[in-house]
Amino acid sequence: MSGPSTYQPRPGVMKWLEDRLPIVGLVHSSFIAFPTPRNLNYWWTFGVILSMMLVIQIITGVVLAMHYTPHVDFAFTSVEALVRDVNFGWLLRNTHAAGASMFFIAVYIHMFRGLYYGSYKEPREVLWILGVIIYLLMMATGFMGYVLPWGQMSFWGATVITNLFSAIPIVGDSIVTLLWGGYSVGNPTLNRFYSLHYLLPFLIVGVVILHVWAVHVTGQNNPAGVEPKTEKDMVPFTPYATMKDLFAASVFLIFFSWFIFYMPNYLGDAENYVQANPGVTPPHIVPEWYYLPFYAILRSIPNKLLGVVAMFGAIIVLLFLPWLDSMKVRSSRYRPLGKRFFWAFVVVCILLGWLGGKPAEGIYTILARFLTAAYFAYFLIVLPLLSRMEKTLPLPNSISDDVLSKSDSSLGKTVASIAVVLGLAGTLVMGGLQNAKAATEENIPASQQWSFAGPFGKYDRAQLQRGFKIYKEVCSACHSLKLLAYRNLADPGGPSFTPEQAAAVAAEATVKDGPNDAGDMFDRPGRVADRFVSPFPNEMAARAANGGAAPPDLSLMAKARSYERGFPQFVFDFFTQFQEQGPNYIAALLQGFEDTPPEGFTLPDGSYYNKYFPGHSIKMPPPLSEGQVTFDDGSPQTLAQYANDVSAFLMWAAEPHLEARKRLGLQVMIFLLILSGLLYFTKQRIWADAH
């Protein structure tokens, strides 16, 4: 479709190079002079958005790999050290983690656009198949990447998903052993996944090149679904499509930046801020949101082997779509029944995603089975029957006629309808995910007024200092802060200790060091470069001193705890940038002890009743009481004040770069808004004559 290059190099080096390696001519014919249908709408821009996201993921992934340690003992802490100690490490991590979700959002829109406009039909069958292969590689890459931080959900997600292969007759157990590198998920598993996660993106790049090549051979499909007939049907790729793509990409980056700078934990799982522990199983193991529809299909079938077959079959069936739908009319705009069934299929996929986050029980399982049947019926029954029975509307004579007739709905209506669908999808999927994670919660902590909340939030320095004092005098007797260094107390955006004050705090600690020249270990005063010293030499000592329950490390506690917000509150949370579940929970927990359990509740020996703790039975005695800690600034010495102050301090311990993140986010958002405005008016000027 692109044809021979019309590029004419100037005499000199460029002509010499073009005669021997015509790469400039190839770029010119493929991305400048390439003829593009003039009626393409904004849904065609997601191909470029996906290319942009792939580049972002590879660049950030390569840099992250430079600081990552693929070992079960060090993987978790290496990720946190990267976030805390590497310059803009938090930006790299947030971009890469949120980028995975943005990648899948874009690819799902890209795939549904292909389904709606029939982009899989002759002569573009190979183009579609290559796209499905890219999707499969993305799913494998995303899953392996999710395992690498080695948090609780990473470990147990890897255990559950890899165990699925054991359902394969004869060779299943051998495949699982090969994946694990042993008889359980462990260090060999992590190394395998790290290697493959690094390799697969470059394999995706190779298939993307083939995908783009296929586009240039067959030409692009268009909303009308008719092939170009004259030159009036086409416009050069540059500047027309290029400018539209740049504008769409800038708008998408605004959406992306919202998560990077203001909602970095919204799409993640709080459980993954707890280091992997093979001895403790999370109450609800769920994958990332973009796998939930297939997870629902898997769980809807009681037979393990059939569930695995159905889950993979739900993706493999896409490969055969060009032959299952033999209707000559491509676009659903001219297929009244096809359009209705398409939107019904979209609703089925959304509902399956919602059910994937629900417990696999009762009505949820029944609904999942019904929707699984509807999913496969769309491909195997509905599309083949419609190909033979449906009466289509008249097609436009050409792409030019389609543009002039303006038969498609207006951009405003299209955007509004898609926004409703995406809003419904996000609402149901995230709602189901939160319900699954917090199904055992009975009491929801009250939201506190935090100084660090919102787009302009900052830590209250006096509150952080009071919170540190509470930690030092009360909490440090049992709980460690192993990811925090004494020097961090004097870092910008923290409690505003002077370097001398931070050194004095460090010197109060005793650090085991060595060996010395005699080969012996010795004790020395702490230095500002040291991490906060743990109150116990090892976990067994901590358990022995606390009735068999090891007090958790508090470094990430403010991000490792969450609770269900309920519908529609969690939808509003997106717009209000609510990320304070952790501090709310900690403050409520510290005040949630009750001397007398409710009637009918049996409290185990050696435990205490807390109405906010999951299961309500906690080994920790009430740590705080009125007047326990003296404040020099005259703040109230009450339990509520103590709870809020130490919660704010723990939030800073978990997010020491919060202020820098929000400050940079404001600058980036302003830049992107201005850039998008300039690109929009430039695009309008360029396209004025084409329309």
Automatic annotation (TrEMBL):
Localization per record: Membrane
Domain Cytochrome c positions: 462-594
UniProt cofactor(s): heme c; heme b
Tree of life domain: Bacteria
Pfam family, one: Cytochrom_B_C
CDD domains, sorted: cytochrome_b_C, Cytochrome_b_N
Binding site for heme c: 475, 478-479, 620
GO biological process: respiratory electron transport chain
Residue ranges of domain Cytochrome b/b6 N-terminal region profile in the record: 13-224
Entry function: Component of the ubiquinol-cytochrome c reductase complex (complex III or cytochrome b-c1 complex), which is a respiratory chain that generates an electrochemical potential coupled to ATP synthesis.
PANTHER family: CYTOCHROME B
Name of the protein: Cytochrome b
